[in-house]
């Protein structure tokens, strides 16, 4: 009789523990109506601060991102694969965590999502001070040659057409643009 009471008490305690655990788990996710688990993702401000710290890793990626954001999505998958490798080899765990969330389900992305994600990234970089140079035709001179790779033979004083804008950060050119005749 005494052993039956012990078994019943142990069973009740086990049921209470299981119910308690289930209630705890459901209360943690009660505000999540998407059915996905809640995660502790870094804040936008933390991401910006960390991107600012490691921005040099992304030099030479801005023009490719601009192309994708502008709807030229034929190389979008490669652009994002390159960014993934850049981030993978960075020393920032925060950015790695943020990036994994940012590109979640990217195997299912269509052109419209690539355009949206590239635009979002460019806005994030812009918010930390990465700026796109002009897209207007320019008169060739030494200061313009510092900002652009001149693809056709253009002499000083001639007009060059901007094929790709330059990018600057903290007053320094971090990615040259491209000029054509």
Describe the structure.
There is one protein chain. This protein is of the alpha+beta class. It folds into 3 domains: 1-38; 44-132, no CATH class; 138-180, no CATH class. Helices cover 51% and strands 14% of the residues. The protein has 7 helices and 7 strands. A 4-stranded mixed beta sheet has the order 2-4-7-3. Strand 5 and strand 6 form a beta hairpin. The N and C termini lie far apart (99 Å). Residues 10-37 have low confidence and may be disordered.
Intertermini distance: 99 Å
Derived from helix and strand composition plus strand pairing, the structural class reads: alpha+beta
Number of domains: 3
Q: Percent of residues in beta strands?
A: 5-15%
Largest beta-sheet details: 4 strands, mixed
Top keywords for this entry?
181 residues, alpha+beta, 3 domains, four-stranded mixed β-sheet, globular
List the helices and strands and how they pair.
Layout: H1 2-28, H2 44-54, H3 62-69, H4 76-88, H5 93-102, H6 111-127, E1 130-132, E2 138-139, H7 142-147, E3 148-150, E4 159-164, E5 167-169, E6 172-175, E7 177-180
Parallel strand pairs: 3-7
Antiparallel strand pairs: 1-5, 2-4, 4-7, 5-6
Helix pairs in contact: 3-6
